[in-house]
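Hi V.,

You were right to ask for the full record rather than a summary. Here it is.
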Amino acid sequence: MDGREELVLRLAAKRRAKLGLSDSGYAELLLAVREEPEGFMEDGSDEAFAVVARAVAALDEAREGDDLLDDGEFFSQRAKRMERLGDECVRALALDPNCTEAQLLLALAQDPDPDLLLNALLAIDDGATRRLGPVAQEAGADAWSDVFARGRLRVKAAIARTCLDSARYRMADSVARQVTGASPLDPLGARHTSALALARLEDEAALDALEASFGRRGDSWTQLARLILFYKLGRMGAARRALKGLDTLCEGGVYALLRPVMVDTYLPDRPAATPYSFEEVTLAVHEADPIVVDVPDLVTWVQDQPGMVQSARAFADNAGLEW
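Predicted structure:
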């Protein structure tokens, strides 16, 4: 989340609506707001979002050295960061009780178990819907272009991921499709949640239709979803081909599956990653963890396939990672 840029877009959109500016006038306004957004803040909602934007930026900066910390120090620093983030969200909500981004981040910062988190997120979503109505799903439009709708889309994306974490696979797919229905470009990656949920549900037709609807743009979630789907269906030839795809297309794909690492809470968005990169496949494996745990023989089967352990070891050696 680029909080400062979203603050700029919010302030500029509000001022444009008030002044009725042309496109060229708006372009000039946008430059001025980027130069000094503080001069364009008008009310508590602007101030609240500014608090959130600064809190997210501070969090991202504080996370940069995490790879250098041992486990004890990491969790100690993480607890302090979560507490600071929660405090800033409380401060933002004192300025604007309806700041969706602050509500979302506060729920995430409290680090509850998936069931409690889901209840909190559903309450946030329900409150926003009662105040504002449903997020628009207009043909040919993308709700993400409305900067004021982004917080609500983020809440729904978080609900979908939390449903996946808590084994509510049909609900995960349903809510993720609400996100992609309103925002077909899907910058939040809700389609990835759908792909994993459909794989767990063994719904090959729906997974294929999902891939087709996004132009069959491949990524680590697609490769992993195919592996899970075909393994669960008992179609071992297809599962072997999917595993080969994970190994050859995804950097360190088999290593990531056999040696999963801890991935911190998305606050609020999934980190950006290059398609098929090790960073991306690490995220995909992390999100699929509840499914992989529920299919315990999958990892053993992967290890037994010719060349897979050797490939994972070679990647670890080349990348300087532990095996």
